[in-house]
Amino acid sequence: MTTRIFRCIFLVALMVLASSLIFVMWVVHSRFMQSELAQLKVEASLASQAVTNEGLPYLEGLDNTIDCRITWISADGTVLYDNRSDTVEMENHLQREEVRQALEEGYGQSTRYSGTLMARYIYVAKLLPDGSILRLSTSQGSVLGLMLGMWDSILLVIIAVLALSYWLSRRLSREVVKPLNELNLEMPLANEGYEEIQPLLRQLESQQRQLRAQSTELKQKQKEFNTVTRSLSEGLVLLNNSGTILSINPSAAKLLEVTPNCLGADFSVANRNPSVAALVEQALRGEKQEQTVSLSAGQYLAAASPVRSEGQVFGVVLLLFDVTQKQQAEQLRREFTANVSHELKTPLHAISGYAELMKSGLVPQSDMVTFSEKIYQESQRMVQLVSDTLRLSRLDEGAADMQWDTVDLYDAAKQAVHELTAPAELAGVTIHLEGSSAYIRAIPQLLSAILFNLADNAVKYNKPGGSVTIRIEDRASEALLTVSDTGIGIAPENQQRVFERFYRVDKSHSKAVGGTGLGLSIVKHGIQILGARLDLDSEVGKGTTITVHFPK
Ligand code: ADP
Asked: Could you give all domains of the chain from N- to C-terminal order, each with its CATH number?
């Protein structure tokens, strides 16, 4: 900009210089001409006087080096004398404008181009008393000629003016641009200076305000996005169309074992999981991909979707969902089904075997009762197994169809004791119920199942002559149910596992006492649904105490 302004100013200065020079030269030239004419007139008067007095000898006696041309013309126009040309060759001068004028008025003057002398001349003619005319002329210098005559002075002036113009132009252009260079663009309205740029500054200010608002809004949105994605347990990665990581939430960084500050890095370099890399590559080619991948944190469903705009893939969204629990649940379900089938197969085989023997008549009449008894026991076991399985699957579904009610824990325990009195007597075990009423919010049939299974186990895994004590305690914030026995106890390594489905410490013992391996699983699940907590304290050979804390 400075150069441009400098060029403009300098050009203007040059034009002003050139036009001034021409004007001045023209004025000087015309003044010079006027003074020449005046001088020529004076000279013509003097010469006329002399020629009148002395005639031709005067003219012939003149110094040949004088500046002006002198022509003496007779009254008929014949040239009598000319100090520059040969009079013989000269034509009649009567028709010359100045001569005609002098003949008429006594004095004449004209300016014209002389063909004879090939220059522009000023002519002054004076009528002499004898009727002849004396004409003086001098060449009229052109402006160019005048300038050439003064070339050294003019050159000096031009150089001086050029230097001055150059210096002034530079200074001026810098001065003009200075306020623009010093503009504070951060605060456009704080600038004072050119009034002409105020609209521009106001526009700038308004645009800056808009930009600031947009930037704040963008930051806010980015913050919201980060807050949302940060709290996601699912992994989320956003990539651009060249596979550069634009956003990655902490879950995804952890799952893919990359540093969270890998933004801007190439995903194929940062990520070391080949399955995920293959999915992302295909998504970048425009194909949506989903696959269960094995990550260090477990099994994850990785979904890579291309993001399109106007038919072009301009990014990829990668989502990682935890499917470990789902897969574990499926695995458990498969195992459970296999276990149930297996558990059912044994009594079924036994029943079928006994019935076949009875049908073929191979069983003596005396053993018929024993065989029938065996068939009854096996079918009872199947009934128990099927009812436990059904109960468990209802609990798996969250027991949503079961009704909650206020229940007296003591009453429920009394019912369980009542149901177990006969089996306990058979096993030679005594049951005691202690404590007082304790009302809790619970699902009655679930509570009964919990109480029955705990008390049943305490009887089943007891010793002849042993005892079972059920105690109910009503505390301020909870109700306590304690079932303790003096039975065989559970070894520490089995204390966690007894709550697994179909897990039995001693399978044959459990079967002998009619166990299905599902009782404690029902207890554990039921307790979870009721929001209660269970403690197990057991010592092999001494007995087991199970305490359940019911919230009030
Ligand atoms: P089961 O139908 O076999 O009794 P449970 O789930 O109720 O199945 O119990 C799982 C296993 O835990 C039992 O087979 C038994 O070995 C052990 N067990 C449960 N309760 C007691 C207890 N009170 N004393 C000793 N062992 C117990």
From this structure: 2-149 (3.30.450.20), 232-322 (3.30.450.20), 327-396 (1.10.287.130), 405-551 (3.30.565.10)
Residue 146, pLDDT score: 67
What letter would DSSP give residue 89?
G
Q: What residues does 439 pair with on adjacent strands?
A: 408
Task: Name the residue with tokens 């634009």.
Answer: 246
Atom of ligand 1 nearest to the CA of 515: 2
Please report how the helices 409-427 and 444-460 are oriented relative to each other, as an axis angle in degrees rounded to 10. 30
Region 13-24 average pLDDT: 89
What's this model's pTM, rounded to 2 decimal places?
0.53
Question: Apex CA 468: angle with CA 467 and CA 472, to 5°?
Answer: 145
Contact 517, 503 (CB under 8 A): yes
Atom of ligand 1 nearest to the CA of 499: 6
Q: Which of 332, 349, 361, 388 is nearest to 514 (CA)?
A: 388
Ligand 1 pocket, Cβ-based, cut-off 6 angstroms: 453, 457-458, 460-461, 485, 487-490, 498, 503-506, 510, 515-521, 544
Q: Using an 8 Å Cβ cutoff, are 454 and 546 in contact?
A: yes
Distance CA(314)–CA(316), nearest Å, equals 7
Which residues sit opposite 533 in a β-bridge?
549
First-to-last alpha carbon distance for the chain, in angstroms, is 85
Distance of CA 334 to the CA centre of its chain: 47
Q: 3-class SS at 543?
A: strand
Question: 450, 489, 490, 484: which is closest to 467 by C-alpha?
Answer: 484
Run of H or E including 293: strand 289-295
Q: Which pLDDT belongs to residue 401?
A: 81
Nearest-atom number in ligand 1 for the CA of 507 is 14
Q: Which two tokens stand for residue 515?
A: 């166990």
Of 337, 445, 469, 339, the residue nearest 395 (C-alpha):
445
